[in-house]
Amino acid sequence: MIKNYFKIALRNLQKDTFYSLINVLGLTLGVTCGMLLLLYVTDELSYDRYHTKADQIYRVVSKIREPDKAFGWNVTQPPLVETLKRDYPFIENYVRFVPYGRVMFRRGENRFYEEDIYSADSTVFEVFSYKLLEGDPKTALNQPGSIVLTQKTAQKFFGSRPALGESLQTNDTTFYKVTGVMEDVPRNSHFTFNALLSKGQFERGLTDSWGDSS
Predict the structure, then answer these.
(1) Strands 69-73 and 132-134
(2) Can you tell me the distance from the alpha carbon of 156 to that of 207, in angstroms, rounded to the nearest whole number?
(3) DSSP string, 96-130
(4) Quick one: which of 57, 55, 182, 192 has its CA closest to 130?
(5) 159-209: per-residue pLDDT in tens?
(6) Which of 109, 114, 171, 189 yields a CA-CA distance of 20 to 30 A from 47?
(7) Which DSSP category does 58 fall into?
(8) How far is Cα 205 from Cα 211, in angstroms, rounded to an integer?
């Protein structure tokens, strides 16, 4: 029976080659577009899903309303999370990131400007599933003057040598001790960085500020 179906289909293709070619090309194009769309949607839905607690992690943003306009920020005032955690017991933990922008680090003759540098609360490795290759995630950002590098950044300064316990200096002669090296942030992340600094005097000065700073 199936053999007969193939014979009939072949005869129909040979009977009107041009029309059959258009149908085959259309079908091929449709299937290809469908597959590409499926791959795109699958990739979009995979963002940040590698975190073990992905379904419990929320990013807090600000919605500002003024008399003549309304707009949103992807930042909030630093004291907000502490207030929320105090007033809402179901909040287990929080992490704040403060951008440092472009920073020049040096190690001997090696000097590089690094983008996407942030300071973060020491709880960052409790909330997010970033894997440390060197160092202890429980203590990596506990002490002031600590820095956790991504693997790519660590290789710039230290090559294949272990970076744990080494130091990097900024242009203003501030020294940071490398307390951890983590895997590079996966591509399917909406938030990426090259290094994390422990909270310093700058961030402590913002702790009680409800102004424009984030």
Answers:
(1) unpaired
(2) 33
(3) -EEEEEEEEEEETTEEEEEEEEEEE-TTHHHHS-P
(4) 182
(5) 999 999 999 998 777 899 999 999 999 999 999 999 999 987 556 555 566
(6) 114
(7) -
(8) 12
Look up residue 210 and give its two tokens.
Answer: 């409800």
Query: What pLDDT shows up at residue 94?
Result: 92
Residue found by looking up tokens 């203003």 in the block: 172
With a cut of 70, list the residues of the chain below it in pLDDT.
1, 5-6, 8-9, 12-14, 201-214
Q: What's the pLDDT score for residue 5?
A: 64
Three-state secondary structure call for residue 144: coil
| Chain length of the chain | 214
CA distance 3 to 25: 24
Give the residue carrying structure tokens 């940040």: 48
Q: Find the helix or strand (DSSP H, E) in which 132 lies.
A: strand 132-134
Question: Would you call 49 exposed, middle or buried from its count of C-beta atoms within 10 A (0-12, 13-18, 19+)?
Answer: exposed
